[in-house]
Amino acid sequence: MLDIVLRRFIPNYTQTRDPEVRRQYGVFAGGVGILLNLLLFAGKLTAGLITGAISVTADAFNNLSDAASSVVTLVGFRLAGQKPDADHPFGHGRMEYLSGLLVSLLILLVGVELGKSSIEKILHPQVTQLTALSGTILVVSILVKLWMSWFNSKLGNRIQSETLRATAIDSRSDALATSTVLLGLGITHVTSLQLDGWLGLLVAAFILKAGWSAAKDTIDPLLGTTPDPEMVKEIQEVILSHTRVVGIHDLIIHDYGPGRRMMSVHAEVSDQTDVMEAHDIIDHIERELGERFQIEAVIHMDPVQTGNPQVEQLRALTAQLARNIHPDLSIHDFRMTMGPMYTNLIFDLVVPYSVTMPPVQAKDALVQALQAENSNYHAVIHIDRSYVV
Predict the structure, then answer these.
(1) 238 and 135, same structural domain?
(2) CATH number, domain at 56?
């Protein structure tokens, strides 16, 4: 059913990596959100006036803020879909993250205001009354919010949108909050216990929790997080599928918004490979990565010594000694030069953030381990930090 609707409103709806298609998804979701939340606001406000319950009226204004959030979502996707220009050569994709953050802040603001109103109702309780009409309105509201959560979650997962995922979380919290309000009104109707203010406070807690969770999910990509491990694995497999590439390291992925990513990586190629042939291979890999992952790739070629048994033996020994210090330590760009007094071992030591010991301490430990193997080994080590898991 969802595919039928999407086919009607979004041409080429299956091409979710296309920035224009993603924009249309966001605009469509925003439009649906505005319409349904305005209807829910009107219905709940009516129910709040009938029951006299602050929790119901506050829940109505929560839906009004959701309508505002949907406007922000719609505007955010439209701005994110703008083409790159002279001032923003990487596009405007991060506007989607900013709109998601603004949605989260609106959710938090509603939670705070609802909490204040609920405390006032606890201090000065008023009689509430549940009617068949108000009960029906609240039940329908719960069902609509559960559908909206499913709808936004489906669309968010299709286009990998944190904004729509945040909206889905908010809709689930709204459904739970309205369920709590309805239950409380039912209990008050049967027992005459005045639970309205306390239930409003509980609803506020639900909303604040949802707002914080949504804010965290949108702040993380703005600050910069490690890329998806599955995508990293696929990128590594594509590069290493070319037999001339013997290893890769220093993979970095920059996120400028959904569908707007750049990456750089160092590819190790045998120093015996013809430089023109190596250049053609690297160019081909960059194009392949761009077509497969919609990512701008820049690959630096590192020539490494191959076919020398002594170099291979010392490389394997050094790698094993690094793993003995910590299983997550690794090396790359290993070279060996023979001097009159020392054998120089030149390489990079990768110290991921999962390694708790200071990088300098790891480096010193590896130097000592190599000298314990042979006092003539002179290690020249550059420390690298890993940007991927």
Answers:
(1) no
(2) 1.20.1510.10
Residue owning tokens 């006299």: 52
pLDDT given at position 358 = 93
Residue-wise pLDDT tens digits, 149-204: 999 999 988 888 877 887 888 788 788 878 877 887 788 777 877 777 787 787 77
Segment 282-320, tens digit of pLDDT: 999 999 999 888 889 999 998 888 888 889 999 999 999
Classify the phi-psi angles of 12: left when phi > 0, otherwise alpha if psi is within -120 to 50, otherwise beta: left
- Number of Cβ within a 10 Å radius of residue 51: 26
Task: Tell me the pLDDT band of 389, cut-offs 50, 70 and 90.
Answer: low
C-alpha separations of 190 from 130, 195, 204 in Å? 10, 12, 24
* Residues 61, 138 within the same domain: yes
How remote is the C-alpha of 348 from its chain's centroid?
30
Q: Which of 301, 303, 389, 299 is nearest to 346 (CA)?
A: 303
Print the domain residue range for 313. Answer: 305-389
Question: Any bridge partners for residue 267, and if so which?
Answer: 248, 301
What's the rounded mean pLDDT across residues 88-109?
78
